Please model this.
Amino acid sequence: MKIRNLEIGAAQIPAIMGILNVTPDSFSDGGLYIEPKKAISHALRLVDDGADIIDIGGESTRPGSSPISEDEEMARVIPVIEGVRSRSEIPISIDTSKSSVAKAAIEAGADLINDISAGRFDPKIFELAVLHKKPICLMHMKGLPKNMQDNPHYDDLIFEIRSFLSETASLTISKGVPSELIILDPGIGFGKSADDNIAILRSISSFKSLGFPLLVGTSNKSFISNKLGLGIKDRLEATLATIPACVNGGVSIVRVHDVKGVRRFLNMYSLLQ
Model:
């Protein structure tokens, strides 16, 4: 799969997706980059730090969050996408579940749709992927961001997530999206307990066997705090410890906040293989 000038899935080492939350309330960096100038500068810094993709989102999906209007979401992300695109050829991902926002983002220069709802919130998003021939990432989430962490339960965690992703990929293909434009994400932290997230990381290769590139985001998430008692600013090393599981499991993209740290880690890790 090619995303702008980036080939995904060909290398053993995953591509790095740098996170840029243009929100006042995201769990890790909310409020830091709400101003477009600061957001654009941070995106370019992530590029310099070694990001392969920049994932720009304007609506927090942290546990307990509520949705915002499409107008507000567009007002946050579109100036940033335009600013980054005018200064860099870095592949840009739009983190949204709204087809109207995705459409405006693509017109502003975005190359990938990253939809945590996997098309469930707004099925028109599939039409955009078909019309513009853009890759789409489909994530597993149990419930909604507002309630997804209210005691999530699975009878068979890996089987249920794997079945959802397989069925969703088939549905997406039936909507006209070519299979080569589909990326899957098991949804670390989205309707899962801390133990569930650990189990997913231990079983990443079972999702890879579905035949699509995988995206995984473990960066700074609360399961790290649950297991190690670390605050948000102290989770880099624990985040890095999850990366080898992603590499060994065949993950194509890792979504992270600290691009520089992950790039240095992966550069050294690749020398040891």
User: Anything to note?
Assistant: DSSP finds ten helices and ten strands in the chain. The two ends are 24 Å apart (CA to CA).
